[in-house]
Amino acid sequence: MPNGSYLRYVALGDSQTEGLGDGDDTVGLRGWADRFAEHLAVVGPGVRYANLAVRGKTAAQVHSEQLEPALALRPDLATVVAGVNDLLRPRFDAAETAGHLEEMFAALTAAGARVVTLTFPDVAEIAPLARPVRNRVRELNTGIREAAARHGVAVAETGLADVATDPRLWSPDRLHAAPLGHARIAAAVAEAVDLPGSDDSWTTPLPPLAPRSGWRTATAELRWAAGFLGPWLGRRLRGRSSGDGRTAKRPQLQPVTAEV
């Protein structure tokens, strides 16, 4: 829309778009997509918003399970964010993952929607034990950028901003953004679509952290591995997903209250 006002916003994706790390299943999840919808409501009070994202989904699952329901809602704006659950799996194929994203980009843009996606930060800077997947992140980001360019999709370059790897933007599991991180992602997406009032202030670094000793860093890594990495790997080995049995939190378009 030329004035940045949209009427029907639909979010597709996995746990990050669902909002994990920003609230919980008891009080409810907010997340960057909810926050971005609130930005939209400031510009256009009539906007309605649906969130089809479900935690644990791969790009292929987002494609097969969420694209058709999204198209049925006739969005004029859509966000498509997926791929992290793919790159953490043993048989990761960057081209295949980006291909699923591209098919969603193509279908949504062909239906008249403005589409936005984002790139991913270096996970090794967030969780050093995840260093083996560093090159996978780079490959996936390249695939996302190339696919987006072919379909006129806007890209929020959260993968390039130094602040994106600041631990204060991440929840204790280091897989999901904390509330501050979700707020920064929402601001990045707003800037990517040139929403009135948006700018690049989301890239502003936080005040420096006090340095930690080597043993404290090592202890924190071991605790993270035991508390989060181990259980995640256990689910993978059992063929289970955190999204098993779950449905979208906001499957239909609903009005949005401007809270930003």
Give a quick rundown of the structure.
By secondary structure, this protein is an alpha/beta fold.
Percent of residues in β-strands: 5-15%
Briefly note the structural class of the backbone.
Answer: alpha/beta
Proportion of helical residues: 40-55%
What's the β-strand tally?
A: 8
* Average pLDDT score: 88
The biggest sheet amounts to:
6 strands, mixed
What low-confidence regions span 5 or more consecutive residues with pLDDT below 50?
A: none
Order of strands, main sheet, comes to: 7-6-5-1-4-8
Overall shape: it is globular
Distinct helical segment count: 9
Order of helices and strands: EHEEHEHEHHEHHEHHE
Instruction: Tell me the Rg in angstroms.
Output: 18 Å
**Termini separation:** 21 Å
Characterization of the model:
The protein is an alpha/beta fold. It is built from nine helices and eight strands. The strands form two sheets. The protein has a six-stranded mixed beta sheet with strand order 7-6-5-1-4-8, with helices on both faces. A two-stranded antiparallel ribbon has the order 2-3. The longest helix has 24 residues, at 214-237. The chain is globular and about 50 Å long.
